[in-house]
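Reviewer 2 asked us to include a model.

Predict the structure of this chain.
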Amino acid sequence: MTVPDQLAQYFNFKQLGTNWRTEVLAGATTFVTMAYIIFVNPSILAEAGLPVAAVTAATCLCAAVSSILMGLYARYPLALAPGMGLNAYFAFSVVKGMGVPWQTALGAVFLSGAAFLLLTAIGLRQMIVRAIPREIFAAVAAGIGLFISFVGLKNAGLIVSSPATLVALGSLKAPQALLALFGLVVTLALYARRVPAAILIGILSATALGLATGITHWNPSSAGPSALAETAFHLDIPAALRLGGLEIIFVFLFVDLFDNLGTLLAVTKEAGLAGPDGEIPRLTRIFVTDSLSTMFGSLMGTSTVTGYVESAAGVAAGGRSGVMAIVTGLLFLAAMPLSAVAGLIPSGATTPALVLVGALMMAHVVEIHWKDPVAAIPAFLTIITIPLTFSIATGISFGFVASAVLRIVRGPKREDWLLYVLALLCVLRFAYLAGG
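Predicted model (structure tokens):
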């Protein structure tokens, strides 16, 4: 038996009804649909003070290593990269909002990955998943969607602060605002035409316009491993432990848990890989891969790494095995030299990506039973408080407390004890913040 035949057997090509050509094309499709993260992640983490070129290199490397690991070890058609929403929480809530140095925040990301690995190993993950109401999962996704869209519009100057109304429409004559509007039109038009690379093309189109009009300038920087040296192994785990940032670690952990569950359900449903009773084969391997990827990402200098729902585009193209994820990872590795030019991407050029991704995340609101007040009110409070308080942690806390209170009023149940514990911790958090 030849090596290709042995590999085909390892990846279950025959059982899955796939082949090498299909998997390679599916991997390339997945890469094109999620390549925008190469430019968007650095633009967000730059707000926390991290060097753009270094984060670009780290983004490519982490997406490559984690996707390849997912393909080889878990054998799933699921690509990974630094997660949207989690990077915004890292930059705006933890670093800018709490004044935590980015090195310490990276230490908290590492600890969240280690905690996730421990929870997976001892089986507590399943208990936590069962304890959290489904509407809170959906509401957190929608709230984060609003949050990152708000960040994108703010970065482009389309939304500005106002002493009279808190926020207002910015000047539509400003260069970055015009770039953002141009990129938004291009991106949405291509997305409406179902072009797989709509987000990436929108970013590059706005950047090209910025270069042509002199709004942005090209100042090449170091690339690849040399750029990575500015963030690699700069995390400060002891400082994260001294910080006592259980809230920070919990939010990283919770949102990562949700991202993985939502993505897994979407991708496995699309690929037909779930079992007859809905169970996902090799689930432990998937979560182990995600945990290790997050820890590796923090070591390299980026926020939490998680599965990408854009993998469904590759599945739609025929991808069914881990080879698809491996191909996507190899393409991210080949993209590492882009760190040399990442600095030329203007803030207005990434706004369309943030707005569109936010809009797609809002689709989760259909999972909420709006006619049931016990489900609807906690979900609504979660959705609205995440962007308005500029804090994912606060939104989650409101959701947990409201859900627990309403369930107790309706009639407490013994199986909800862990939710009540989580809600109590959130109340203590609010008391701490009020006392501060």
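The two ends are 68 Å apart (CA to CA). Strands lie at 80-82, 159-162, 166-169, 305-307. We have added this to the supplementary material.
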